[in-house]
Amino acid sequence: MWRRTVGLGFLTAACAVVGLAASAAVSSESLGASTISVPRCTAAGLSVLQNLAAGNVISVTVSGLPAACGGATLQVTVNNGLTNSGGSAAIAAGGGATTVTLALPVAVTASEQTDLVVVGP
Amino acid sequence: MSARWSRLSLIVAFAALLGTTSASAASLSLSSQALTPYRTCTITATPATTTALFDTTVRQGSAASNFGTLTSTNVSSGSAINQRAYLRFDLTTCSPAIPTTAVVRLATLRIYLTAVPAACRTIDVFAATASWTETGITWNNQPFGTAINNPPTASRSGSFTVGTPAGCQNQATGVYLVGGTVTSDVAAFVAGSATNFGWMLRDDTEGSATTRTVTFSSKELATVGQAPQLVVTYVAVP
Hints:
The complex is a heterodimer.
Chain A: H1 2-32, E1 47-53, E2 56-65, E3 73-79, E4 84-90, E5 96-107, E6 111-119
Antiparallel strand pairs in A: 1-2, 2-5, 3-4, 3-6
Chain B: H1 2-31, E1 35-44, E2 54-59, E3 72-77, E4 83-88, E5 103-110, E6 112-115, E7 121-127, E8 158-162, E9 175-176, H2 183-191, E10 199-203, E11 212-217, E12 229-235
Antiparallel strand pairs in B: 1-12, 2-4, 3-11, 4-10, 5-12, 6-9, 6-11, 7-8, 7-10
């Protein structure tokens, strides 16, 4: 009886370990397939405005950031097809608006692409 | 004795299970750094940016004339002298192209105010329903026809208020207006469920006894800092 009980205990523990291995394999597969769901601090529509000087974008103001993004880092890159420039800034604790100054000015053309990534919090 | 060992073995098993669970959670938290990516396309209408970007005014008082080359555009309500603004931005100028599967989070018309009325007026934004050209459109041949207060307010895509009185959304000149949101229209253009013919802006109540006019800078002014813009913020992979 004693041996049977101890055996049952080890068997249960072994099952748990096997279970972990199985879940790790599934997780790894999801990552490889790029299907993992990455948490985000907002899905809101952020307002993105270029701040200009002499026909160049020198900074970007992002507003509409919720408090859930407070403390995160806002990374911005502006690309007009010829020049690519970026910068980053911390988002205030309460969210709101954050202005990121670009390392280099980017000339305004027919269209510019601005990529934003909020990292964290 | 056996009962005590039995309980002990179950505790060991649960401890093992809990241990694996916490280890799994720890590794998940390490790989789950919050990342919130957005991409924005800002289209700016300047004379150098091709003829695919249109802005113009049609005038009831000069119904057969075209005003596509003027350096300003107007929206006006008056007795038989109403004016409407037409704007169109070519979304294909965005590079890289906005994917048809993208989720448009926000799309905003930005136009630069140079004159606002003394009364607070509501300006309606309607998605145009047929093609038009900057140098061909007139009051008489505009997509929405010549009847005033048509299309009805209920079919507008959005609206904003302009005027000097307190409480009006846009009271000052020399700035871009706020409130020109056209997110649902742009989402439909991107998805292909609607054709991008641009937008028409009109006073919500045309035919005012006292003429009320809002004036914007047009691309022909050739001032980048006042050029009309369409700003589209989207998520490529939701």
